[in-house]
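Example record for the data management plan.
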Amino acid sequence: MITIRQEQPQDLKTIREVNRRAFAQTQEADLVDKLRQNYHNLLSLVAVIQNEVVGHILFTPVTIENAARTVQGMGLAPMAVMPEYQRQGIGSQLVRSGIEQLKKRQCPFIIVLGHAEYYPQFDFEPASRYGIRSEWEVEDGAFMILLLNESEMQGISGVARYLPEFAEAM
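Corresponding structural encoding:
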């Protein structure tokens, strides 16, 4: 049975290993460590099977800026599952749990830069439909948004900006 819960201090070393193994490099693991060190308003969840952390997802603040106003939501990145546990629905459970928790926090939106075939199952759609674009050059279909509070997002368009650590990691 899979349990999804908030990360705990004793999970940090394993979370780093999950990200390192899932991405076959340390870039994402280094980014997670740096974000955790620099910010406290993150949502960091782990998937646990038999007391072993096998997956991790991180949500960090993202702002959408235009001339009229700025709205803060969250960005989903990274999401990682140990290779031997992939394709078993663990990532999907992490995404769904994160969405539910952010709805409870009254987060207006979630942005993701990811697989255009994967994230629509969670109702993400191209951000360009709302006049929202990434601060980086990315493929239109891969930059998606999930509106959690449509009234707060009414009339919002512009550039979505991640925390500066993401640009440093690219």
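Summary line stored alongside the record: Strands lie at 2-6, 43-49, 52-65, 70-81, 109-113, 125-126, 132-134, 143-147, 158-161.
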